Amino acid sequence: MYLKEQVLGKGLKPMQLCLTYDDGPGATHGSASGPRTLELAEYLRDQGIVATFFVLGKHVDQHADVLKGVHAAGHLIGNHTYDHCDLQKRRRATLPLLEEISRADEAIRKAICCSTRYFRPPGGAWDDEVAKALCAEEDQARTNGASGRQHIGAVGWDVEIPGGDYGYWKDGKTPEECARAFLDAIEERPEKSRGAIVLMHDSNNEDDLRPKNRTYEMTQKLVPLLGAAGYEFVPLNEIPEVKRRLAAIA
Ligand SMILES: [Zn+2]
Fold first, then answer.
1. From ligand 1's centre to the CA of 130, what distance in Å?
2. What is the mean pLDDT of the chain?
3. CATH fold for domain 2-249
């Protein structure tokens, strides 16, 4: 079920935040920086937080065990395409879209033995035309015997920081600086009357950025700051619009 309107934090209470991490899973051994998706997932679990990880199929193929661990820690898994493709560009080039999502689904199913219901388009590249093209391809697949509607989407976000968290790692800034930027972005957003979905990246699509990732350390700084400011953390599937869409494809 792909709708033009993206799922946002609407319907969440004012101090509720839903944490989401894109572009993983990833793992690093023996270096100071780099993706640490499993450690991040376990830290969040220990804090009583259920986050959502929108994963790339190609990274799942490389780090299936990490995804297993993230799932076992109780987090939600979302589909972020196989290869981080720009769906708007692909549609303009009249290329098929659904296979990028199905391929990622396959990788996820292989790793954790169940499928995901959540979908987020890479780069937020989403519009009515993409949603319609995906629905048409899904209908076609169904007439060819594929099962019914698999996903709800697109899942968007309400809060990101200027330049993105990856911009901080690219510029050699510290996890403290990045956490502070997230706190400011959350505190200063115009719609403080409602909760928000927060966008972070536990790994990266770009090879040169990935080894610089420090989102695990950043999250360890950010969560206590948000807790002290009175925020509470809710899973993606507690957003009323998510519940509605899940019920519609059940
Ligand atoms: Zn992404």
1. 17
2. 94
3. TIM Barrel (3.20.20)
Cβ atoms 73, 44 nearer than 8 A: yes
How close is the Cα of 217 to the center of ligand 1, in Å?
A: 20
Q: Could you tell me the distance, in angstroms and rounded to a whole number, from the CA of residue 194 to the centre of ligand 1?
A: 25
Compute, in angstroms, the gap from residue 224 CA to the centroid of ligand 1: 25
Cα 88 to middle of ligand 1, angstroms? 14
For the chain, the domains span 2-249
Whether 189 contacts 159, CB under 8 Å: yes
Cα 54 to ligand 1 centre (Å): 8
For residue 74, give the nearest of 225, 216, 237, 227 by alpha carbon: 237
- Phi, psi of 56, deg, nearest 5: -90, 135
What is the 123 CA–ligand 1 centroid distance (Å)?
A: 6
Percent with pLDDT over 90 in the chain:
87
CA 41 to centroid of ligand 1, rounded, Å: 18
Query: What would the pLDDT profile of 85-142 be if each residue is shown by its tens digit?
Result: 999 999 999 999 999 999 999 999 999 988 899 999 999 999 999 999 999 998 888 8
Q: Are 43 and 219 in contact (CB under 8 A)?
A: yes
* Other beta carbons less than 10 A from residue 5's beta carbon: 12
Helices (H), the chain: 37-46, 57-62, 64-72, 87-92, 98-112, 128-143, 164-170, 175-187, 215-228, 240-249
User: How many A from CA of 23 to the centre of ligand 1?
Assistant: 5
